[in-house]
Design a protein that fits this description.
7-stranded mixed β-sheet; alpha/beta; single chain; Rossmann fold
């Protein structure tokens, strides 16, 4: 059995759809028969909360694994209904950056803990905090198969992308020579605005063929789903947001040379 693909979802801007993409892309990969692990390395623990896990009740997760206090397999939660597994985060993770400063190879901690379990999953998706600190650095180094960058179709969308690509280049040169951008995901698209079309044009000019064809619309159902602790596959499978993430998952699978199974409509 081959090793699972590890993708890190990153953008130091907040509110661009990182967590929404991590959980809903992950849920559709699971829906299409893949074994999926979401790794939440954001101390805000949004991916954890969006999958119905109360972050303040997490007794073990990313923090304990990164500092070496617990083995990773003992901390992973499984949700058969969502077709997902989760390595949860908690507010304790905020202290890990300070504790990891003293560790040797501190930028490689996440890569080191994920490596032994890669054969258990087809896809591991890492949800990063909205910053370029040590946790995000760990996410970039661990991204064995590339980085996924959500970009919102709004004013100032390209602001900060130059800084992000420079950071990726620096990490590639210093720590992870195979690091690459797997693709850019356009999010929060509103077809009623001229601005959205302009942003898409600019992002495609900036990133070229690295931009996914599937575009994620601005969607009330996508916005509501986290408050119910569900991915869109379960909360509103007939919504425009669900169809968009299903298309994105298929596009990723096809690009990875994975056969997309024909499945019945989600219920």
């Amino acid at each position: 059995m081959g090793l699972g693909k590890i993708y890190t979802i990153v953008n130091q801007k907040g509110g661009v759809g990182k967590t929404t993409t991590a959980i809903n892309l992950g849920a559709y990969l699971g829906y299409f028969g893949q074994r999926v692990l979401i790794v939440d390395i954001d101390p805000q623990a949004n991916a954890t909360a969006c999958l119905g896990v109360e972050k303040n009740t997490v007794e073990g997760g990313t923090y304990e694994v990164l500092i070496g206090a617990q083995p990773i397999l003992s901390q992973i939660l499984h949700n058969p209904r969502f077709k997902l597994s989760l390595l949860p985060s908690s507010p304790a993770l905020a202290g890990s950056e300070i504790e990891m400063i003293e560790m040797s190879q501190r930028e490689f901690r996440l890569q080191q803990v994920l490596e032994p379990i890669r054969q258990r999953y087809d896809y591991i998706l890492i949800d990063c905090p909205p910053s370029l600190g040590l946790l995000t650095l760990n996410g970039l180094v661990a991204a064995q198969d590339g980085v996924l960058i959500p970009v919102q179709c709004e004013y100032l969308a390209l602001e900060g992308l130059g800084q992000l690509t420079q950071t990726i280049d620096r990490v590639k040169n210093a720590l992870a020579e195979d690091l690459k951008i797997r693709g850019v995901i356009l999010t929060m698209y509103d077809a009623r605005t001229n601005l959205a079309a302009d942003v898409i044009h600019e992002v495609k000019r900036f990133f070229g063929k690295q931009v996914f064809e599937s575009v994620i619309p601005r969607s009330i159902r996508l916005a509501e789903a986290p408050s119910y602790g569900m991915p869109i596959t379960v909360y509103a499978p007939d919504s425009s947001g669900a169809r968009a993430y299903a298309a994105l998952a298929k596009e990723l699978l096809v690009g990875d040379d994975v056969k997309v199974p024909i499945v019945q409509e989600a219920s």
